Amino acid sequence: MKIIKYVLSLAILNLIALILVTLGLPDIVPLHINIFGAIDSFGSKWFIPIIGMIPVLIAVIYIIYTYYLQSDLNKEIENKIIPTIAIIFIPFTWILVIFSLKFSDTVNSLHPSTNFASINIIVFVLVILALLFIFISFYLENLKQNWYIGIRTPWTLKNELVWKKTHKLGKYTFRIGGILLLIHAIAVFLTFNFFYAIIGLIMVIIIIAGIPILYSYKEYKKIKK
Hints:
- The protein has helices spanning 2-23, 47-68, 75-92, 95-102, 112-140, 154-158, 160-191, 194-224; strands at 28-33, 39-44.
- It is mainly alpha-helical.
- It has two domains: 1-108, no CATH class; 111-225, no CATH class.
- The protein has a two-stranded antiparallel sheet.
- Helix 1 packs parallel to helix 3, helix 3 (75-92) packs antiparallel against helix 5 (112-140) and helix 7 packs antiparallel against helix 8 (194-224).
- The longest helix is centred in the C-terminal third of the chain and has 32 residues, at 160-191.
- It is globular, with a radius of gyration of 20 Å.
- The model is unreliable at 105-114 (pLDDT under 50).
């Protein structure tokens, strides 16, 4: 509980910093990067502090949850995973700021420097996600059946044995997926290919989430026969 309060304080300070930085940005800033690493969408600079609200909201909602809804079932694991997710969102909130400081709304989105910045940011995102997946993998198998956190499919929620088997498998898919994503991040950095960075990320997500979902369905049908 103390950790999430520290995270909330950090998230609020981060939001204040984002607001102060936003005041000095152009009124129109880059908001979206396509699969080729080019900026293809612009909008109001005040979208940046809105993104900065995400870690604040995660922390606030979790604090409310701990007071009124949290049980002892997965308390220890939840108190590690949720604050970590909130902390990880904080550096993500600065991605648009980085682009805004480098480019204005008149920048040609195909300029080489734009693609270079895009690659650096996607590599950063891949590494953070990889570490998050690996971190979560150490706790998945010990998660008890619940409606809030874990691999929640219709079949894991209906059957406790399916829940246990799916999360045991998920421990390995998350860990393997995280390691593959780290390797992929290095490859993206070396090859300078934004398109394949996105394709690789999608493939890893299929490994991490798709396999356990299909497995839970298969196991549930097997038990019901």
